[in-house]
Amino acid sequence: MSDRLQPRRGIRLVGGADSWRRPLGATLSPVRRRLRGALLALFGFLLGCVLFDRVIMPRVVRLGDEIDVPEVVGLSLEDAKKKLGDTDLKATTAPGRFSNEIPRGQVLLSLPQSGSRVKRNRQVELTLSLGAEDRRIPQLLGQSIRMARIELQERGLRSGAIVYAANEEMSPDQVMAMSPAGGAAMDADQSVSFLVSKSGGKRAYALPNLRGLKEREAARWLKQNGFGVSYAEESGSGEGWFVVLTDPPPGGMLWPRSTVRLTTDTAELFPDGSNGQDQFDDAGGADQPGGAKGDESTPGQVPR
Question: What is the b/e burial string over 281-295, where b = at least 16 CB atoms within 10 angstroms of the residue's CB?
């Protein structure tokens, strides 16, 4: 062996003709080595996640008993729930859909579908049929506007403009007319408009003179004309009682459904049967006894 110094394997002598290359790792700086290690660790982590999600988890999820979803399409909701319950499945409901094949109230479809393999105690969503879509307008005359709008909404129809008009023959907020009319076919972009009743303006009447009348006659006349009756303390009603005072007094203004307070006594106030009519004439306050202010009409004939 030559006396010449031989280089170590992998060590390059500067300027040497027979120098050796260093290993790849020996040429990298510490920063680059750390970066390469981090990239390798990230790659290993991502690969592990993919294997866990695609291979391991499906095997874990499939552990335990699996059952087939039974066929429930065409059954009523109660029967479908019972059938699912018998196979350890739970039923939930989804908004209904129109169908020309499945009658209203029966199961239209299930999710998961019948025949699917699922674990026990899984929830199965049931969609009920609303039946064939009927776009004919229901008859709503005489109903309250609130109930009319609810019925339209339940049928998938829209309510449109609402116009109010005074009508003393109907209760307030009742449908008097509608357009289109009930029973007519309705397009998808149409809406139903309503004419709705409201109470008319209150009309004041002058209270006729009831003093001296028998209590029964006065009370009967007030009730027949739409007024209420109350009694003062120590006042009685029935046979042998006569009207002594009224509140409001004769000529006072009354509105529909207002109450007249009677003071009665067993002593007849006008034994001659005159009814004290001359006293009413002096009271004033109305054009005609029992008539509306400024109007010749009367709510009823005053008993004599």
Answer: eeeeebeebbbbeee
Where b means 16+ CB within 10 Å and e means fewer, 31-48 reads eeeeeeeeeeeeeeeeee
Q: In the chain, how many domains are there? A: 4
Query: Which DSSP letter does residue 55 get?
Result: I
The predicted-structure confidence for 130-169, as pLDDT tens digits, reads as follows 887 767 888 898 888 999 999 888 887 888 999 888 776 7
Q: Which two tokens stand for residue 259?
A: 């109450």
What is the CATH classification number for the domain harbouring 105?
Answer: 3.30.10.20
Q: Are 182 and 139 in contact (CB under 8 A)?
A: yes
CA distance 250 to 102: 71
Beta-sheet pairing, 192-198 with 159-166 = parallel
Q: Which domain holds residue 171?
A: 156-198
Q: What is the pTM of this model?
A: 0.32
Beta-carbon count within 10 A of 212 CB: 20
